[in-house]
């Protein structure tokens, strides 16, 4: 891509390409940022990926990168590359709503650790991305500000909870985005939008400044259009943080090198038997099957592996996550920040708290808070939360056993392609099923990635291949993902997103 | 064991959620379905299986007893819904602890 | 909620028919430099909300990180209380809504405390009571509220409250005793003595300044009664707002009297939290709750377990200072005192003062006499504590030394102390300024003696005729003439020499 082409060209470039072009002086960070801001202006009214766009701040950050480059200072690997940040990460210079009304008006007095790493690395934060309220959901329909749209078909969901992040990348509004994955909230939106999304090993990137949903599950991670781009962002955002006691004190796995290596010959691949069958869309299973055959043709050794307790992963998750969230969200009570309702002198503090929370939280959040309160109650703890944590151990053991036989596990990322907006909104259980394949890795804390593996023939919508690796073996994800991506792109002759009809194509 | 509307109302009180009557009806039905679904974990035999709380068995993460930056009263109180005398003003508290 | 004046059974009667069971839960604010889970300073009296950060304010996205010093201090306390130190334990969330708790949960410990199963010996008079320690655990303190609009500044009747979070997050150690049985009538005194002993222990360990009046030592007292000799345990009440040693004693006593009246009338003691009223010495019920609080404890997912290596625990054990009980035993032996003498010293609050005076060079006997005698009298007169008198142990030791060397006699020494207490300076400065040295110079004495003899001829006669006891009158006259500064013994020698020449 040459400099001086129209803005549309810059928005079609990869993050790696943009970083290289900026470093080489072929284009400036300001030009790149302007191009993406223009793109947002052109399409975001329909995509609704962003809750807040910050043009002046973004351009200032871009100018700073250009100045540093001019002064001969060393630049970070992604300096000048624009990014959409899920509105769950605190930013001192932009609002942070978590997709909720209850944080109305809140301006955090501190940056998340990851926010700080992005800024220091010269990454240009374009704005805050829409999300399901407090990361609870699989479609962004639980956002207090309305759902985002899937760029492939704007009558469909972009997935969730990191739906805004995913839509922004798929619509070329940003080459990079950051989300969080608790039950699948990076991988599932990536899959249904036809892009790449990773859930790193739990603790691989800092949760300080990431508003907590389920503390033992929440994992910040990258979204991008290519496996290499995701690896580059994975490296920039990850690493130990002394402010997060659960963050891993070890070097980030060599994900970029692995993405470049992309060789699966001799690799042992296990297909999870339990993640298939009823409830899975035929086209999804078909594309998944072809991806598995592709891996074999590339030299991998494929076997079927059984993880018997995976069938209990969904119920265990929907006990553990609500339990932790019922406690994490207790702080939102109108006393210190955000929304306050009913403080008219007639109501007590308890009443004001209750009125504020009733007005400020959406239905899904309320459901999960009550569910969590129930599961932790004295008399119920052992049978529900306690039991779920034991099931979690059994799932960890299933993974351990499987990884003795294979190097990576694969499955479809999610049972169906993007569903229609409104289709599952009133049926919580149906909505929860979107997380069927992704939840086991959240419970075990190991690394998992979704890479596009084609379009479902029934509806022409993207299908994601999920790759799962052992704890701290994040690099394996990128090795396999890059191999699949490369082979499919070669076979197709172009990247998958080029096939998108509708908005992404404009 | 189905969850009753009264139990849901109790949960709402415990969680400080002032739900309307319609909401209570609606949520009671939904929670009943969800609880029945998640109760499936009880089918699993888990005698002697320890619970998992973290992906990696880390212990003893500490910080030194050294002062770090504070936010400053201004930064903190500016975000508050109501303040007085440099303190957070909150409505009258009923419960004595 | 106000209740009508509670019925009470007089204490002696109550105790004759019921056996009391007491328990104490004490919270100690640790004197670490920073808070339990963040780097904010643990200052007392700072501007409101100036010592807060995202973590102790519980802002969305914040995460706790454990203060190593707080763990060490807690292990120190556990070892001094003869506890077992857990090889692996966790923090847990205690969930409830309250405006002084920023997260609406408190990070505490539930079923995995850091220290368990110890004991502390408490001496009351001649009896040593071994108080069992159930557990010692760590948690974070809450913010502080001011209640505005009500009459007394308390919650009841207040219009609104003002919250300061400076205190939120300060490390708090909770020490819980096992139920203490068999104390009978001594229960209130045992309770008080336990808190006093615990306080001394914390000071000796250097882990807290334990000032009850500042809130760095807080006490809740549990009391229950059972019919004498029944062998059962009654329903207990928990009394809060017990802010001094005296209040501990009074609160237990009042609860015994109150519960006896309830049981006598055939009623049931309600298991509840009660509030102690300092002025009246009474307790009243808190707002009644329909059911016991369910805190929905679960292990804190934002923190990893604490597993103190045994080598570290032994290192802490080796570094423990001499504990108060051992120190008292040592001093008692060194000073050759009886148990009763030792108790008097303690009760007078003079133990440390005497020890320091001895350390400064005085003889134990003299040090005791000064502090328990003259100085105690002065303290009572001015209505102050002994330790608050404007005289130091070093100064007392100097005065004692001057008396021992003969430079001062007892009366002069008292005058010197007067001067010190009045702020005139050090003992030596006062002796010089006031010219209070004992006069031993024979020439000066002889002048005064001759005057005394001349003024008292008949007394002199008696002495000359062999009634040497009468010499005392003449000594007295010499003392008066010299404003008490004569060396009395020497004066007497000289008088006898003068009046009874050798045969």
What key phrases describe this protein's structure?
heterotrimer; B: 97 residues; alpha+beta; Histone, subunit A; two-stranded antiparallel ribbon; 3 helices; flat; C: 503 residues; Arc Repressor Mutant, subunit A; 3 domains; three-stranded antiparallel β-sheet; elongated
Summary of the model, kept short:
Chain B is α+β, with helices and mostly antiparallel strands and 97 residues long. Helix content of chain B is 34%, strand content 9%. Chain C is α+β, with helices and mostly antiparallel strands.
Q: Considering residues with a beta carbon less than 8 A from a beta carbon on another chain, report the largest interface and each chain's count.
A: A-B, 73 and 54 residues
Q: Which sequence of strands runs across the widest sheet of chain B? A: 2-3
Q: What fold name stands as the CATH topology of the domain at 5-43 in chain B?
A: Histone, subunit A
CATH architecture designation of the domain at 5-43 in chain B: Orthogonal Bundle
* Total of helices of chain C: 16
Description:
The complex is a heterotrimer of chains A (506), B (97) and C (503). Chain A has 506 residues and is an alpha/beta fold. Chain A has helices at residues 7-12, 15-23, 29-47, 55-70, 113-120, 163-170, 187-193, 227-237, 255-261, 282-297, 313-328, 349-360, 363-376, 382-405, 428-432, 439-444, 474-492; strands at residues 50-53, 82-86, 124-129, 176-181, 196-199, 219-224, 268-272, 301-305, 408-412, 447-455, 462-469. In chain A, 40% of the residues lie in helices and 12% in strands. Chain A has an eleven-stranded mixed β-sheet with strand order 1-3-2-4-6-5-10-11-9-7-8, with helices on both faces. In chain A, helix 5 (113-120) links the parallel strand 2 and strand 3. In chain A, helix 3 runs antiparallel to helix 4 (55-70), helix 8 (227-237) runs antiparallel to helix 9 (255-261) and helix 11 packs across helix 13. The radius of gyration of chain A is 21 Å and the shape is globular. Chain B is an alpha+beta fold and 97 residues long. A two-stranded antiparallel ribbon of chain B has the order 2-3. Chain B is flat and about 50 Å long. Chain B starts with a helix and ends in a 6-residue tail after the last strand. Helix content of chain C is 39%, strand content 18%. Chain C has three domains: 11-296, no CATH class; 324-434, no CATH class; 442-499, Orthogonal Bundle (Arc Repressor Mutant, subunit A), CATH 1.10.10. In chain C, strand 6 (115-124) and strand 7 form a beta hairpin. In chain C, the strands form three sheets. A nine-stranded mixed β-sheet of chain C has the order 3-6-7-10-1-11-12-13-14. In chain C, strands 5-4-15 form a three-stranded antiparallel β-sheet, with no helix packed on it. In chain C, strands 8-9 form a two-stranded antiparallel sheet. Chain C is elongated, with a radius of gyration of 31 Å. In chain C, helix 1 packs across helix 4 (245-264) and helix 13 crosses helix 16. Chain C has 503 residues and is an alpha+beta fold. At the A-B interface, helix 11, helix 12, helix 13 and helix 14 of A face helix 1, helix 2 and strand 3 of B. Strand 3 of chain B pairs antiparallel with strand 9 of chain C.
């Amino acid at each position: 891509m040459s400099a001086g082409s129209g803005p549309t060209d810059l928005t079609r470039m990869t993050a790696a390409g943009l970083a290289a072009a900026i470093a080489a002086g072929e284009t400036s960070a300001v030009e790149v940022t302007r191009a993406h801001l223009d793109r947002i202006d052109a399409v975001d009214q329909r995509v609704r990926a962003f809750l807040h766009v910050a043009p002046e701040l973004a351009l200032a950050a871009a100018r700073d990168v250009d100045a540093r480059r001019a002064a001969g200072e060393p630049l970070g690997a992604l300096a000048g590359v624009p990014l959409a940040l899920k509105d769950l990460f605190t930013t001192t210079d932009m609002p942070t709503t978590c997709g909720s009304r209850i944080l109305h008006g809140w301006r955090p007095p501190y940056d998340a650790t990851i926010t700080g790493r992005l800024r220091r690395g010269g990454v240009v934060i374009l704005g805050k991305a829409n999300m399901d309220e407090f990361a609870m959901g699989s479609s962004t329909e639980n956002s207090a500000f309305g759902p985002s749209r899937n760029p492939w078909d704007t009558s469909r969901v972009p997935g969730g909870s990191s739906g805004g992040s995913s839509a922004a990348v798929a619509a070329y509004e940003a080459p990079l985005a950051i989300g969080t994955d608790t039950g699948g909230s990076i991988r599932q939106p990536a899959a249904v939008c036809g892009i790449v999304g990773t859930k790193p090993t739990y603790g691989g990137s800092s949760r300080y400044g990431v508003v907590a949903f389920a503390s033992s599950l929440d994992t910040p991670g990258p979204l991008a259009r290519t496996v290499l781009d995701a690896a580059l962002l994975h490296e920039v955002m990850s690493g130990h943080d002394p402010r997060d006691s659960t963050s891993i004190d070890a070097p980030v796995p060599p994900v970029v090198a692995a993405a470049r290596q992309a060789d699966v010959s001799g690799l042992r691949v296990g297909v999870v038997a339990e993640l298939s069958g009823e409830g899975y869309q035929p086209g999804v299973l078909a594309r998944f099957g072809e991806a598995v055959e592709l891996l074999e043709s590339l030299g991998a050794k494929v076997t079927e592996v059984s993880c018997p307790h995976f069938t209990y992963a969904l119920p265990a998750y929907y006990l553990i996550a609500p339990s932790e969230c019922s406690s994490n969200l207790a702080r939102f009570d109108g006393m210190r920040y955000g929304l306050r309702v009913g403080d008219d002198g007639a109501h007590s503090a308890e009443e004001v708290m209750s009125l504020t929370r009733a007005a400020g939280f959406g239905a899904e959040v309320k459901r999960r808070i009550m569910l969590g309160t129930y599961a932790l109650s004295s008399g119920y703890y052992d049978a529900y939360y306690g039991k779920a944590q034991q099931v979690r151990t059994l799932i960890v053991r299933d993974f351990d056993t499987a990884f003795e036989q294979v190097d990576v596990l694969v499955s479809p990322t999610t049972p169906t392609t993007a569903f229609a907006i409104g289709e599952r909104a009133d049926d919580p259980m149906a909505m929860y099923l979107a997380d069927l394949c992704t939840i086991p890795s959240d419970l075990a804390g190991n690394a998992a990635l979704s890479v596009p593996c084609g379009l479902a023939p029934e509806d022409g919508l993207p299908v994601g291949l999920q790759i799962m690796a052992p704890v701290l073996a994040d690099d394996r994800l990128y090795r396999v993902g890059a191999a699949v991506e490369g082979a499919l792109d070669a076979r197709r002759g172009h990247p998958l997103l080029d096939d998108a009809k509708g908005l992404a194509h404009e | 064991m189905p969850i009753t509307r009264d139990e849901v109302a109790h949960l709402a009180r415990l969680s400080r959620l002032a739900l309307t009557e319609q909401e209570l009806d609606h949520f009671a039905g939904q929670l009943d379905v969800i609880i029945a679904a998640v109760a499936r974990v009880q089918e699993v035999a888990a005698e002697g299986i320890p619970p998992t709380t973290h992906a990696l068995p880390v212990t003893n993460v500490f910080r030194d007893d050294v002062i770090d930056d504070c936010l400053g009263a201004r930064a903190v109180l500016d975000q508050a819904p109501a303040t007085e005398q440099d303190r957070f003003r909150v409505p009258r508290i009923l419960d004595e602890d | 909620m106000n209740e009508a004046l509670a019925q009470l059974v007089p204490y002696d009667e109550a105790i004759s028919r019921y056996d009391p069971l007491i328990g104490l839960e004490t919270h100690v604010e640790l004197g670490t430099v920073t808070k339990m889970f963040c780097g904010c300073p643990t200052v007392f009296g700072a501007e409101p909300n100036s010592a807060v950060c995202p973590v102790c304010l519980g802002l969305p996205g914040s995460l706790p990180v454990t203060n190593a010093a707080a763990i060490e201090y807690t292990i120190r306390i556990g070892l001094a209380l003869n506890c077992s130190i857990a090889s692996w334990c966790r923090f847990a969330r205690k969930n409830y809504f309250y405006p002084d708790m920023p997260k609406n949960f408190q990070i505490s410990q539930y079923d995995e405390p850091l220290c368990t199963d110890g004991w502390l010996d408490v001496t009351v008079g001649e009896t040593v009571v071994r108080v069992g320690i159930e557990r010692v655990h760590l948690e974070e303190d809450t913010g502080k509220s001011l209640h505005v609009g009500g009459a007394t500044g308390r919650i009841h009747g207040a219009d609104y409250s003002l919250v300061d979070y400076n205190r939120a997050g300060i490390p708090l150690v909770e020490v819980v005793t096992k139920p203490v049985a068999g104390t009978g009538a001594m229960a209130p005194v045992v309770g008080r003595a336990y808190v006093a002993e615990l306080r001394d222990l914390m000071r000796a360990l250097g882990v807290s300044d334990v000032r009850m009046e500042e809130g760095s030592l807080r006490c809740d007292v549990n009391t229950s009664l059972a019919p004498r000799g029944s062998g059962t345990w009654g329903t207990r009440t928990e009394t809060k707002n017990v802010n001094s040693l005296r209040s501990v004693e009074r609160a237990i006593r009042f609860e015994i009297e109150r519960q006896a009246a309830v049981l006598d009338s055939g009623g049931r003691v309600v298991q509840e939290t009660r509030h102690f009223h300092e002025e009246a010495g009474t307790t009243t019920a808190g707002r009644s709750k329909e059911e016991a609080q369910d805190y929905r404890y679960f292990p804190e997912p934002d923190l990893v377990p604490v597993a103190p290596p045994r080598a570290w625990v032994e290192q802490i054990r080796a570094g423990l200072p001499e504990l108060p009980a051992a120190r008292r035993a040592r001093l008692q032996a060194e000073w050759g005192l009886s148990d009763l003498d030792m108790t008097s010293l303690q009760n007078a609050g003079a133990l440390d003062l005497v020890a320091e005076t001895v350390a400064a060079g005085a003889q134990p006997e003299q040090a005791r006499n000064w502090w328990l005698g003259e100085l105690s009298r002065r303290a009572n007169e001015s209505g102050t504590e002994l330790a608050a008198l404007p005289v130091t142990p070093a100064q007392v030791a100097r005065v004692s030394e001057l008396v021992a060397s003969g430079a001062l006699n007892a009366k002069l020494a008292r005058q010197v102390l007067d001067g010190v207490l009045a702020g005139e300076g050090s003992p030596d400065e006062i002796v010089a300024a006031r010219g209070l040295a004992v006069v031993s110079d024979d020439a000066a004495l002889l002048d005064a003696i001759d005057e005394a003899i001349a003024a008292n001829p008949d007394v002199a006669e008696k002495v000359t005729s062999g009634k040497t006891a009468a010499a005392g009158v003449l000594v007295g006259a010499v003392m008066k003439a010299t404003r008490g500064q004569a060396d009395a013994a020497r004066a007497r020698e000289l008088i006898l020499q003068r009046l009874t020449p050798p045969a």
